[in-house]
Amino acid sequence: MLKAPLRIEGEYARPDADTLVRQVRVPYAETTTIREGEATIARGNRSPRTFSLSRAPELAGLQASFGALLAGDTAALSRDYRITSHGSREDWRLELVPRDAALAASVRDITLRGRGAELRCIETRPVEGELQRTLLAGAARAAIATGEAAAYESLCREPGAAAQ
Question: pTM of the prediction?
Answer without folding.
Answer: 0.76
